[in-house]
Write a structure and sequence with these properties.
With 364 residues, this protein is an alpha+beta fold. Helices cover 30% and strands 27% of the residues. Strands 1-16-15-6-7-5-10-9-2-3 form a 10-stranded mixed β-sheet. The chain has a 4-stranded mixed β-sheet with strand order 11-12-13-14. A two-stranded antiparallel sheet has the order 4-8. A hairpin with a 2-residue loop joins β6 and β7. It starts with 5 loop residues before the first strand and ends with a helix.
Length: 364
Amino acid sequence: MAQNKSQFQIFPLGIFGGVSAAIKRPLEVTSFSFDEQHKLRHDDSSLRWYWPPKLGADLSRGLETFVKHDDSVDDHLNGLLAAIVKLEEKTGERVVADFVTWRGMMTKIMCLPFDPRSSFEMHAIKFHNTIYIEESHAFKLLSRVYEAQNHQMQLGSFWGYKFETLSTLPAWWAQCTRSEIESRENDIVNNEAQWCSIVKTGFDNTRIVLGGEVDALWQGEPRSVDNPPVYVELKTSKEIRSDNDALVFEQKLLRFWAQSFLLGVQKIIVGFRDRNGILQSLDELQTTSLPSIAKKGRKTWDGNTCINFTNRLLKWLKETIPEDGMVWKIRHDENSETVDVYPVPGQKSFLTKEFVEWRMSGEV
């Protein structure tokens, strides 16, 4: 039994209903890339542009040559913190926030009211009045064990990466050769390379800095005022052929919405495939329209409830986690009615030495 454990009640969900808390529109402040060897680069070299894929493409093609990122290595918040230091060096201004984390952590929290079967474990530490949150690497690896033993899950994961490869180009289409556009089915799938956007956002008076991977650019340029960017999230899903398929898809829209909403991604392109992984059709969705789709459908989730739940949980975390130099655990067990928070004595801080020294230097 963890000592000093505090609990946040998830149910009844009715207490989180009604009009949503005020949301600060995500504002992109910087970005960075991981190259094809997953080396950090402070540039936009891994940014991709959207261009529709050919229907009828086999999403299984190239599985044997898949270059898969080794996620047994714990990256912590390293890339995100390095990018913040780089930005502060450039601007001379401190990036002020109540929370700094990856978009994936906030997505797990935001979806929890309507996905109580999900489980997660995160680490948090408060430093200079900001709470930094990362995923527990040990917990993440444990959750990967089942996937590693399930061929269909591995194949489904690859189909998603293959769809991204088929749907993107290394530059705006007019700047690409015909061969680059038409030979995408032959491109080696590599998920080492990523382009990550960092945004300032917030729930009510809680300020958040989020970093997250962006699949592609629809139009515009990163951080441009004159030519603002329109980003795209790329997803695959099974063809809808029955009422149950429609129900499952509506439930999936919750995660699609939360991921894109948090980072300010405006469009979601869904590639529908058959059971054999053959791409059958495409659908273009506006992120802001997804809560309405759920409301008009089976009502499997409610966007306002998710926002209000997240808002209150974040406020509670600010009050619960002290600045004591300790790492705290944020945990939800499958079907639990609470989010549990407790200290982990002896756990080493996951903040990088470079980031801590930069902040302690008084340069910003």
